[in-house]
Design a protein that fits this description.
three-stranded antiparallel beta sheet, elongated, eight-stranded antiparallel beta barrel, mainly beta, about 40% strand, 2 domains, Gp80-like
Length: about 200
């Protein structure tokens, strides 16, 4: 099973946490898949390198790469990581070296925006650009429910998705009482709340 299957995009003129996708002529996201190796923490792109088409207008200074779940213009990056900056002008292309396509995931669980979820083989930090779930060797957007009412912000989840979200919550909780009177924590694998006396 793939760790991630989606699209690779180029981010320009900024750090991986905020850079926007290139929109130059001839630019298009490239389909990509990552397969887990060994214990699933190390994942490798199915293709050893990835090349983008030729620029028909300037693409800007490529400063980061990003993974997208789909190829729609409105989708936001799931995760992003910095690369050595390179300006792409008319007639040039951009090829991604293999070391940027080998990922080491730090741990499973839920990651918030701007959390580091791992590194590339070259040591560059993989940064979550939206809430991300890494569970059972698969990376997905963290709140991947089906919208029950378009635009309402509410959603429905399958029992499997709800179980996954609860597991992620439990994994992220402290195992001792924080003592602040408001925090959830795990007490012998039971959900507890801190009570201030």
């Amino acid at each position: 099973m793939a760790f991630f299957k989606g699209y690779l995009g180029l981010l320009v003129t900024g750090p991986a946490t905020v850079a926007m996708e290139s929109s130059g002529g001839g630019y298009a996201r490239q389909a990509i898949a990552f397969t887990p190796l060994g214990d699933g923490r190390r994942t490798l792109s199915v293709s050893q390198s990835c090349s983008f088409g030729y620029a028909t207008t300037d693409w800007g200074a490529v400063t980061a790469l990003a993974l997208y779940t789909d190829n729609t213009a409105t989708s936001e990056p799931l995760v992003a990581w910095s690369v050595s900056p390179r300006t792409i002008s008319v007639g040039q292309t951009y090829s991604v070296p293999a070391e940027y396509l080998s990922l080491l995931i730090q741990r499973e669980g839920f990651f918030s925006v701007n959390d580091q979820i791992g590194t590339t083989e070259s040591g560059t930090a993989l940064i979550a650009r939206q809430p991300v779930s890494v569970y059972a060797g698969i990376m997905t957007p963290a709140m991947a429910g089906n919208s029950s009412t378009s635009g309402s912000g509410s959603g429905t989840f399958t029992l499997s998705q709800l179980n996954q979200l609860l597991s992620q919550l439990m994994q992220g909780l402290p195992t001792s009482d924080p003592g602040d009177g408001t925090s959830l924590w795990l007490n012998a694998n039971l959900l507890s709340i801190s009570i201030k006396s």
